[in-house]
Design goal:
The chain has 208 residues and is mainly α. It has one domain: Tetratricopeptide repeat domain (Serine Threonine Protein Phosphatase 5, Tetratricopeptide repeat), CATH 1.25.40.10. The chain contains 10 helices and no strands. The radius of gyration is 18 Å and the shape is globular. The two termini are 32 Å apart. About 10% of the residues have low confidence.
Amino acid sequence: MKKKNIKQEKGILPPSDLNFDDIFNANGEPRIDDYYYDALELSCGGKKEIKEALRLLNIALQMDEDYVQTHIGFICVYDAIGDEKKKDEAIKIAYKKTLKKFPKWPILMEWGWLENRAYLRAIQYMGDWYWDKGKNEKAIELYRLLLKLNPNDNQGVRYEIAALYAGLNGDDINRMTDEGNEKQDWSEQENLVQEQNKKHKFWKEPRY
């Protein structure tokens, strides 16, 4: 599923007031997450900034090659420069590392816990990759998993699976999102979810 901006779609927003010189751990050294956020901010720049972003992510990779958030960073940077091959490789690695972390899925993996977000993103990226490749059943399996793990669906997975069931694609989702944002009316997407959910029962909206 082609998306306009992979960071926006996954809700990855690096701190706007990030000071690269001020964020350190107790030993005066940058933390692994600092490299990730620095790289995200740099990914919005030119070739020089992209090169530096990849350098920082490779430092983080040396610190812990299994740290999924670092691989999410690679996905975002490769997406920013349009390197589909390397982005696809990073998606597969992030998902593989997530499976290594969770040989058995937990009952819940809620978005509200920051440490869960990289894993949730990795699963969604893999689902999107399957959808792009026409492997719809595998995509549906992962989308359903996400809605089970995180029923609040902060990622908007319900819109993706509804579109897939309806025979739509990523361009259709982007159009509906853009029009909804412009009009401040997202009823088209919500109606799509309601219609397809009645047929396929993929999401149970939480009650508060």
